[in-house]
Amino acid sequence: MCRNCGAIVGAGESRCAVCGTAVAGEPPAPERITPADREALRFARAVLQRPYKFTILFLVANLFIFLLMWQSSGLSSQNLWGFPTDVLIAYGAKLNYLIREKSEWWRMVAPMFVHVNLIHLLVNMYGLWIVGPYVERLYGSAKFVFFWVATGVLAMVASYGAVVDGDVPGEILGRFLLRNRDLPAVGASGALFGLVGVLFVFGIKFRHELPEGFKRAFGTGLLPMIVLNLFIGYLGRGLFDNAAHLGGLVSGALLALVVDYRRPGERSGVAIVWRIVQSAALALVVVSFIKVGQHFRDPVPAPVQMQIETDPQNKQALFVAYARGFHAAQEALLQVIHNNDASRVDAAVILLDALPRLDDNATALKEGIKALLFRSKEMSARIAAAPQPLSNELQEEKNSLIKDFTTWTENYNHWLKTDAQNYGFKLNAETPP
Question: Cys-Cys with 348: which of 2, 206, 329, 425 at CB 3.0–4.6 Å?
């Protein structure tokens, strides 16, 4: 029987077939651990044993702010797939005009905790959950917080500089990085790219010390992911803020070049400095959201509103939101008219209230259908309490509601044939006039 692992050793065998330990003669000398193996163990210990509490804290903070934005949007399930632009601005989205003309500097900080919709949040938080623990465990919480906030801010600085007046120059690089429209920019992806840049440089700096598994995860092993994400950004130029992504990636790489890595067991004489830096970074985030709260109800300036209203992608999304809201309102009204069931009225009103401004006629249609919904709910309550058959007064009220609803529908159809054409809506050629 093997002294080391307890496995049964066959007769005449000099070594255990399981663990390779000699079963006869002098006990084997302990295997020597080379300096490279010892350094690999240190790296492994850094990844496996250090906590990553600030990764979790940032995940919770992003989720909390997302829930606040959803509440501000009316808690509509539709808004989970795209918050109104005024909500994004209220929560601190980056807008060059407000930074330049109103000195709202906090819009360089707050956007890294703000997201456009649920998919945007889930993609970025999944990336943070995968990459964040590596950076925090390797560098420690203080440096991790510094990396996240610094690269997030520098990503917004890059996004700020990428907005140009007039036509975008160039065919490839210019269209990839630059924009000629000052539209809201939000998301944690710039800071996330910053963490990827940190791991990329880390893997190159310590490539001779890393074990094989770490070499595949860091350094040049990240190149396929970086190239793929930049390629996706190129395909989606105009949709993605590629300047912010590239700004975060480059700033993270440059910071990793100058920030020291403290191995497990090593004492650092400047640890207190990094704690101060960490506290300053967190204070910057807190102060930024205090400023967001102070300016939460500021009206959107006319130049910004004009940029938003004339953006083709934004206007098309708003039209879809209005079409869904109007459809829900029509269904609720028809349910009252035919079944005297007002159970869907309140939900339809909430959906309409969550709609941002599109144009004057759309606003008039929204207010008109809301008034009909309120009338239908009051009428439904009176009908439910009245004896059958209905009195002439109630029947006339119902007929008046049907008549006004018919008029509203005609106005809505006219809007679809006129103003709605500006938002990408096209009537079917076979649809009767």
Answer: 329
